[in-house]
Design a protein that fits this description.
CATH class: Alpha Beta
Strand order of the largest sheet: 4-3-2-1-5-6-8-12
Order of helices and strands: EHEEEHEHEEHHEEHEEHEEHHHEHH
Helix content: 25-40%
Number of strands: 14
Strand content: 15-25%
Largest sheet: 8 strands, mixed
CATH superfamily: NAD(P)-binding Rossmann-like Domain
Radius of gyration: 19 Å
Length: about 300
């Protein structure tokens, strides 16, 4: 495929860093949207709080990938942090969507971040992109998050909502907190261990984002999760096998709720999310099982 010019928000985060590296290694030109004054020719300014984007810098972009947003589990869910989680996604997405819609020659595609939190916690029941939204704080945020891209949709730009699961990586994200614990032999199942975790290996996530950019027929919601969601008990066993450590220390649900507050619901809740549209479009996973994803992260040389 010919080299493209692609703008990326959240380029310094876990997924953004890996995506930019992959794109540049394949000869694509990446424009990083940053909140500070630009320091290089490949950077442009944006301010999601003020809903402002330097639209002149977006001219000539073939695609925009919008990944920016405050961390979900970085802090306890105080009212202030919940507002930050919501505003960073909804206001930022609206700013990007309105900016690309205003261009004389808009990009061919906007890939806008979302999350499997859209489905709430449906338990053991499998869900895919045809299922309705669930209940709870994250489900409401995800609905608003996707709706905020409406200006791009109305402008006729192919818009894809990348509903991301738990990214398996050592460099960052929620999973990065698990590796040190398991390496010390302090890992164990969380709560009952029966809750499903919908995960995806970092390399598969980057490959899936690039698939969304390149696949003309894809628009709307697409689940970025591995095809075989695992229970927390299965995750624990896989971590133990890969790191060769015992996994004998379960963490009771009440203890998690005491330590984490409302965010514990995201750990104990069950989400069995399937990537139906990704598979139907021909995407192939390099790490379809949780053990393969954990091993890929543990042996990564990034």
């Amino acid at each position: 495929m010919a080299a493209m010019r692609i703008a990326v928000t959240g380029s310094s985060g876990l997924i953004g860093t890996a995506l930019v590296r992959s794109l540049e290694n394949d000869g694509h030109q990446v424009l990083r949207l940053v909140r500070r004054p630009p320091r290089a020719a490949d950077e442009a300014r944006w301010d999601p709080d003020r809903q402002w984007v330097d639209t002149s810098a977006l001219a000539g972009c073939d695609a925009v990938v919008h990944l920016a947003g405050a961390g979900i589990a970085d802090h306890r869910w105080t009212d202030a942090h919940k507002k930050r989680i919501r505003d960073s996604r909804v206001l930022g997405t609206a700013a990007v969507a309105e900016a690309v819609a205003a261009l004389d020659t808009p990009p061919r595609v906007l890939v806008s971040g979302s999350a499997v939190g859209f489905y709430g916690y449906p338990g053991e029941r499998p869900v895919d992109e045809d299922d309705p939204p669930g209940d709870g704080f994250l489900a409401r945020v995800c609905q608003e998050w996707e709706e905020a891209a409406g200006a791009a949709v109305e402008a006729g730009i192919r818009t894809v909502y990348a509903r991301t699961g738990l990214v398996v990586a050592r460099e960052g994200g929620a999973w990065a907190r698990l590796f040190p614990l398991f390496r010390l032999g302090l890992g164990g199942r969380l709560g009952s261990g029966r809750q499903y975790w919908s995960f995806i290996a970092l390399d598969d996530h980057v490959a899936a984002l690039r698939h969304l950019i390149d696949t003309e027929g894809l628009s709307g919601p697409v689940n970025l999760t591995a095809p075989r969601p695992a229970t927390n008990r299965e995750v624990t066993a896989a971590m133990g096998r890969v790191l060769r450590r015992p996994t004998l220390l379960p963490v009771p649900g009440p203890a998690l709720r005491l330590a984490l507050g409302e965010v514990a619901g995201d750990t104990l809740g069950s989400q069995r999310v399937l990537p139906r549209r990704l598979l139907d479009s021909g995407f192939t996973f390099a790490s379809p099982t949780v053990e393969e994803a954990v091993r890929a992260a543990w042996t990564s040389t990034r």
